[in-house]
Design a protein that fits this description.
5 domains, 6-stranded antiparallel barrel, 4-stranded antiparallel beta sheet, disordered N terminus
Amino acid sequence: MAVLARKRHLLPQYPAETFVRPCLGTKSAISGQKLFMSYAQHDLNGGIMDRLRKQLKIIALAVSLCLTIAVSAYGVRIKDISKIKGIRNNQLLGYGLVVGLQGTGDKVGTGFTVQSLVNMMEQMGIHIDKNSVMVKNVAAVIVTAKMPPFARIGNKIDVVISSIGDAKSLVGGTLILTPLRGVNGKVYALAQGPLCVGGFSVGGAAGGGVTKNHPTAARISHGATIEREIPTNIHDKNELTITLNNPDFTTAVRMTETINRKFKSELAVPVDSGTLELTIPALFKKNLIRMISMIENLEVTPDAIAKVILNEKTGTVVIGENVKISTVAVAHGNLNIMIKESASVYQPAPFAPAPPEGAETVVTDIENGGVITAPGGQTIIIPESMVVVEEEKKKTLMMLPAGTTIGDLVRALNAIGVTPRDLITIFQSIKAAGALQAVLEII
């Protein structure tokens, strides 16, 4: 007991009532006390309770992580796979001038740049002759921007500037005031400011140089100010239309079921594979934004058709999750053909006489051991070709049973050592055999 008293501060704080409280009767209470002392003694001897608590924490953390991964792997927010009809970006377009370039602007022969500069000077009250204008420091550009929905007067948006003349670089330039118009011809924003170019181009007087990225395209962050609003009203409506980014009947039905289950009412009805009609209940007539927020954050599992994408130019192969194949055997072998061209030169003997006039060199089946007859001292050049064909000796016949999934397919193809470009041919052959149960798309 003395040892127990000295080490009392090392004991975890387990009240005796914790072990006594569930017990009934005196005998049970005594058993609870003995159980407490037993746990305490074990804890003193080997730290069993500390290790047990650590293990329980690790198990709880692992279970929580697994649940988090499972939810994140299968759940996708509705806002990420669909949008509300009528709420979208609007494209803006403008024509402007970039000034302040260090001799990298449009050349003298670019007529529209010169005319634009002259017109701008005329509006400022300066009359000049366009034949005397040099535009090496000026470049004509097209300015584009996206006006987001519900943008208000005074909001800032990004703009993209692209040269339309023969300017070499827009580095160091400044975009002068440029109106941005919509498709209806009305001005919705004004853009102006220094350019941010993600590249450069330098060269010498003798030609050549170094170019990085695209120095004739630039961007201005928050470079345009909204001057006119696009009216968008979602209030006082009885219905909302939700459109899917990738139309699919299964996904549309799952979204419908998720929304109806959330609001405990048949509010959503699928119209087709890419459209849902949503009836707004009376409870949310005055608070439609809250209802949209609730719908956007609901999670569904989107579905898609089985598809294989092949890019012949780059050798890229993308295989969808649900791609399966029927029973098929695949054998693949590489055939390498190398053709090397060379020339053999035959010199005449020293002091050989000149060939007689009109004499010709005669070649008699040189490939099969023939002879070359060259009258007089002539230099003979005979072209030679060496053709080498190498066929891969190791040929593997891989049997793929019916219902093979994408994981089995990848492992099987890796086993026979195919490359991405080989996959293109293999998939086309499997599709031609009618064994590929997926859409094969070549881009």
